[in-house]
Amino acid sequence: SIGKAVTGASLAICLSLGSVPAAIAQETNGLDQRVQTALTELTRLSMMAEASHYDLATATAQLNMTNQVISELDVQIAQLANELKDAKSDLAKFVSEDYKYGTVSLLDIILGSNSFDDVVSRIVYENKIAEHQRDAVRRVDGLYTSLAQQRYELEQAQDLQRRYIEQHSQR
Prior knowledge:
It is a single chain. It is built from three helices and no strands. The chain has helices spanning 2-101, 106-112, 116-169. Helix 1 (2-101) runs antiparallel to helix 3 and helix 2 crosses helix 3 (116-169). The protein is rod-shaped, with a radius of gyration of 44 Å.
């Protein structure tokens, strides 16, 4: 009877030990799956962080380039502003001289000419002078307006780039 009890206890211990390795193996498999899932998620998050860092660096480089272009445009705008001022000043002088000394009228041209060809030449010459002065002012004014528009568009891009950088640097 004691032998039967020892055999029964030995059998019970062996049976329970047989189920322990199976439970440990099952638990190990579950842990392995969770570790693999965590590693996959860690890899995904690392890639996202790296991509965000790259995007931020690219945006910062673009902002620096935009700032440089705006600075160069400011120099061009200042030069054109001076040219525009000079062109308008020249036109104002022309108008002022016309006011002070009188405009050259068609009658003045005819009476001051020696021949019909001379009349035509003087009329053409006066028209070319006036046209040249108007065109110079329009050209410089058009360039100034164009550069001012470019500057405005670059400032808009600059603002968007700054906001993008601020949003992504806070992450």
